[in-house]
Specification:
The protein is of the alpha/beta class and 442 residues long. It has 17 helices and twelve strands. Helix 2 runs antiparallel to helix 17, helix 4 crosses helix 17 and helix 5 runs parallel beside helix 9. The N terminus is likely disordered. The protein binds 2-acetamido-2-deoxy-beta-D-glucopyranose (3 copies). The site of one 2-acetamido-2-deoxy-beta-D-glucopyranose (NAG) has 2 residues, from helix 5.
Length: 442
């Protein structure tokens, strides 16, 4: 017989109090920033009550990434394509570029001494924003070599506590940079530096090996991630974690990356043996033909691949043979993934029939604007003119690119650089944070 029997009502109240207290103090459920103890339930899955709304508002006050420095800048208008707001953005960018103090290695080493402070100061979201996201962890392989602040802003933009992040720092990066990256990663259980670091030489095999090192480490982690995305230091997401989860679910086990029949010109990249020193150079030695029976395809370094794909490429002898064969080719990152994704038997791949050609614009992995055919899209151009600058024929996005960019289906875009246009990055940060908390557009 329970002690409560003759004081039924009081007992009920006590139980209720106990449950509430447990909920409030349970670390995973507590949104510790909020002034009233809003629980995860208040944000999750279609809760549209007044309380839910007020919880979101409280949380947004604390976690908003809009800064005072933005003055009369209106990112909402910029993203909607308002030409006055865009003009103001470009003006402000020229001014703030001179006065904005970027966080450097020393500062990161300082603020990460206290990880709790670091996460609060940099406004990390440390609880899963929905059950759906919690049940669908994503892995990231982040290959970087410089610009600590940009790395940390990218990490913050894609960060969710249920995901897992492997960071490959170039072996030849500055010591201070490596230390700062380690300091940042050590503040999170789910962010780590790759166990093996490569000296990355542009267009050489080492770029692929960096991703492979992360893939190997990620497979060994306890997190049962579903998909792997890779990023470099100049990428930035165009979608919230919730949107990424939904997009990956629609892939239904398939991978999504550029994979097309190579031009005559690109075929020379694997015709001869390439030599790698500080740079990569072509030799006169002709290579043996490819060891696999399916054709070679070209694409880019960026992929969205399933966990099964990653497991398979480490286990399958035919894939291992092909990997060995591409090691001395030019820019193997641009044909290895593209070819594996059309190779029969590879999980998530597509047939090599030309019906399955996938351009970079139709794949979901990365939005890149090449300079070759920018212009009026109503007159056949690939995309509108870049409003930032070009680097190696690739657009470094400016504020005026956002309206078009954020309408694309790609999960991430390349390239961004705070020295070219910090307002553009700022506005995406503000937009994504708003959308993460309110689930609708800024
Ligand atoms: C930006 O402009 C919209 C109107 O398009 C307005 O509702 C919003 O309050 C403005 N935001 C800021 C931060 O000024
Ligand atoms: C980082 O910035 C601080 C403050 O602006 C400056 O004193 C310091 O010299 C900088 N450190 C490095 C490594 O650039
Ligand atoms: C380092 O952090 C301390 C507080 O933790 C602060 O007082 C100091 O100004 C910081 N130094 C720099 C260079 O940011």
């Amino acid at each position: 017989m329970s002690v409560c029997d003759f004081k039924q009502f009081r007992c009920f109240q006590l139980q209720k109090l106990l449950i509430l207290t447990l909920l409030t103090f349970s670390t995973t459920f507590l949104i510790k920033y909020a002034s009233i103890p809003c629980t995860l339930k208040d944000f999750q899955d279609g809760e549209d009550s007044t309380r839910s709304q007020s919880c979101r508002e409280d949380l947004y006050k604390v976690l908003s990434l809009r800064t005072k420095e933005k003055g009369d800048l209106n990112c909402s208008k910029i993203i909607k394509g308002d030409s006055d707001a865009v003009k103001r953005g470009h003006q402000l960018n020229a001014v703030t570029k001179k006065i904005t103090v970027h966080l450097n290695e020393t500062m990161y080493l300082n603020i990460t001494n206290d990880c709790h402070y670091f996460k609060e100061f940099r406004k990390y979201i440390t609880v899963p924003m929905s059950k759906e996201e919690e049940d669908f962890p994503i892995a990231y392989s982040m290959v970087i070599h410089k610009n600590i602040e940009m790395f940390e802003r990218l990490l913050r933009a894609v960060y969710a506590p249920q995901n897992i992040y492997c960071v490959h720092v170039d072996e030849k990066s500055k010591k201070k940079f490596k230390e700062a990256v380690r300091a940042i990663t050590s503040c999170f259980d789910n962010v780590f530096v790759a166990s093996k670091l490569e000296r990355v030489v542009y267009a050489s095999w080492s770029r692929v090996q960096a991703d492979l090192n992360c893939m190997d480490d990620l497979l060994r982690s306890n997190v049962q991630w579903r998909y792997l995305l890779n990023t470099c230091g100049t990428d930035f997401p165009l979608k919230t974690n919730a949107e990424i989860v939904r997009a990956l679910k629609t892939l239904n086990g398939k991978n999504s990356l550029e994979s097309e029949t190579p031009s005559q010109h690109k075929q020379s990249r694997w015709k001869y043996h390439f030599e790698v020193g500080d740079h990569i150079s072509e030799t006169a030695t002709e290579k043996e033909p490819s060891p696999i029976s399916s054709p070679i395809f070209t694409g880019n370094a960026y992929f969205i691949v399933s966990r099964d794909f990653v497991k398979y490429i480490f286990e399958e002898p035919q894939v291992q043979k092909f990997i060995d064969w591409v090691k001395d080719t030019y820019s193997p990152d641009e044909h290895l993934w593209a070819t594996l994704n059309r190779m029969p038997g590879v999980p998530g791949s597509s047939p090599y029939s030309n019906k399955y050609e996938l351009s970079d614009m139709n794949a979901m992995a990365r939005m890149v604007k090449w300079s070759y055919n920018e212009g009026d899209i109503t007159k056949g151009a690939d995309y509108p003119i870049c409003t930032g600058t070009h680097r190696r024929a690739v657009c470094v996005y400016g504020t005026g690119d956002l309206n078009w960019l954020l309408k694309q289906h790609h999960l991430l875009a390349n390239k961004f650089d705070p020295d070219v246009d910090d307002v553009a990055i700022n506005c995406i940060e503000e937009y994504l944070r708003y959308k993460t908390l309110y689930r609708n557009d800024l």
